[in-house]
Design goal:
Blueprint lengths: L3 H8 L2 E4 L3 E7 L11 E5 L7 H22 L4 E7 L8 H23 L10
Parallel strand pairs: 3-4
Antiparallel strand pairs: 1-2, 2-4
Length: 124
């Protein structure tokens, strides 16, 4: 994702904040949604640091996303990863674990909202 409008739309969707990152997610607009594709964007504010620190934080988020999203992302969804100050110093394994937690929480919340969570049978 590269357009400001895409980032603003994701901002209105679900948000999950953890120590090292914030995840915003929403459904992709029908005009740009492609089968089998999830869109992703990365951002870091000046609170993270100067340009060098912000770029480093976004590179770390891209690497964590490359390791995690092929397994957990859902097609037809937009994901925005927002760097936090801890993104720079958190060990990479913890960073990917945080992203996995955020994705799982976002998908669970979405499933509950749409009534598609695991269905129970016979009062189980």
């Amino acid at each position: 994702m590269r357009k400001r409008a895409d980032f603003l739309r994701a901002q209105k969707g679900r948000r999950h904040s953890l120590t090292s990152l914030t995840l915003e997610t929403c459904a992709s607009p029908a005009a740009v949604a492609k089968p089998g594709v999830a869109r992703i964007g990365f951002t870091a504010s000046r609170k993270v640091g100067g340009a060098v620190a912000r770029n480093r934080a976004k590179r770390r988020l891209r690497a964590a996303a490359a390791a995690t999203l092929p397994l957990l992302a859902r097609e037809g969804h937009d994901y925005v990863l927002i760097a936090r100050t801890a993104t720079l110093s958190r060990p990479f394994a913890d960073l990917t674990r945080d992203l996995t937690k955020a994705l799982t929480a976002a998908h669970d919340a979405s499933d509950r909202a749409h009534g598609t969570a695991g269905t129970r049978k016979n009062g189980e």
